[in-house]
Design a protein that fits this description.
2 domains, alpha+beta, four-stranded antiparallel sheet
């Protein structure tokens, strides 16, 4: 029995621009909580204030966990794309099954996405990474080595 070892070529994370809006909301709400915390006297208002703190913290924490878990791993034999909260969605594509690669803009005012088409017609779309044209060219070059 022979074992084939694969070499990890690169591991990429999505752009951190997805964290900009939640971080701005966290900063603005933190400053407003500091300002209003001294002004609020009754206990009922403080409970509402603490609930708002928890809600804003979750609004910031969930996109952060989603960003930390997302990755694109390119090895010499396959491509692994993890996404979702805690990286639960995992798509694996062997480079030998790769039919074509397209760089496209799915919607106006959105970042470009890479569509990886398998031989059987299944499409895996990868978006949110820097320099998609160079990334697509690197994947295509690596796929041509495996053929």
């Amino acid at each position: 029995m022979t074992e084939t070892f694969e070499t990890k070529l690169v591991r990429l994370r999505p752009r951190a621009a997805a964290l900009l809006f939640p971080t701005l909301v966290l900063a603005a709400s933190s400053f407003s909580v500091i300002y209003f915390f001294e002004l609020v006297a009754p206990d009922l208002y403080q409970i509402v204030l603490w609930a708002a703190i928890v809600a804003v913290s979750l609004f910031w924490l969930l996109p952060l966990l989603n960003w930390l878990a997302a990755s694109l791993v390119i090895t010499d034999q396959r491509i692994i794309h993890r996404s979702g909260l805690f990286g639960l969605r995992k798509k694996v594509l062997n480079l030998s099954e790769l039919s074509s690669i397209e760089v496209q803009r799915p919607k106006p005012l959105r970042a470009k996405a890479i569509s990886l088409v398998k031989v059987d017609g299944q499409v895996i779309t990868v978006s949110g990474y820097s320099r998609p044209k160079q990334l697509a060219a690197a994947i295509e070059a690596e796929a041509s080595k495996t053929l």
